Amino acid sequence: MALTNYQELQDTIADWIHRTDLGTQIPVFIYLAERKISNNIRARELEIAGTTTTAVGVATVDLPTDYASLKNIQILGSPNSVLTLLPDDTILAYNANGSTGVPQFYSIAGNSILLSPIPDGEYTVSYTYYQDVVSLSSTNPTNWILTEYPYVYLYGALIEACVYTVDPDMVAFYQEKFDAAINDMWENSALESFSGSPLRAFSDYIV
Q: Which of 28, 80, 114, 176, by CA, is between 20 and 30 Å from 140?
């Protein structure tokens, strides 16, 4: 059976679990697997470069709506200034006295980047972030993971299906398959890059 789009993935999952009564649940299995995949991989295909501009006296700038995690961030200038990550409470303590200047530190707070000192001008913030995996749906039937690594989706969704049907032996079986599939992604990405760590993958599935 082909496995190139969202419908074929659903059909394959139904075939592998030998159930005809879970049609409405299979998209949920795929979604749950997809969130775990998105939260636990950092691949070059997910890297996005962007810029934003600070406002005078405002300590935050908005994160992109598809933000998953930050890779790097700097203030553009002559020279550029790479920002240092600090805990939220430290940033808030620094900003409590109202000190302003060129931002040197940052943290992630909710849907914003929190800066310190509070910007005293309009500065261009340049960053590279990892975006969420674009979800599969009837209107978005494929993405790069399904195209390049369909078994990652398949095994991840099968874990969720077996959790739903209370089959711990098969959860363990597909967990092993899923971990091997994630490892394949890591190794293939590593071969395409000289950086040494182009992809980080950590399974959240607990058996």
A: 176
- Identify whether residues 72 and 122 lie together within a single domain: yes
Residue 143 in domain: yes
DSSP string for residues in 19-46: -SS-TTTHHHHHHHHHHHHHHHB--GGG
Angle, vertex CA 106, rays to CA 105 and CA 107, nearest 5: 145
Residue that terminates a domain, selected from 131, 147, 179: 131
- The encoded tokens of residue 178 equal 């899923």
User: Are 52 and 127 within one domain?
Assistant: yes
User: pLDDT tens, 120-151?
Assistant: 999 999 999 988 888 999 999 999 999 999 99
The verdict on 156 and 180 lying in the same domain is yes
pTM of the prediction? 0.72
Q: Summarize pLDDT for 174-183 with one digit per residue, the tens.
A: 999 999 998 8
Long-range contacts of 183-189 (CB under 8 A, 24+ apart): 184/149, 185/41, 185/43, 185/149, 185/152, 189/43, 189/44
Query: Taking every pair of C-alpha atoms in the chain, what is the biggest distance, in angstroms?
Result: 64
Has residue 183 been placed in a domain?
yes
Tokens of 40: 């636990």
Report the DSSP pairing between strands 47-53 and 124-131: antiparallel
Domain of 168 in residue numbering reads as 6-41+133-191
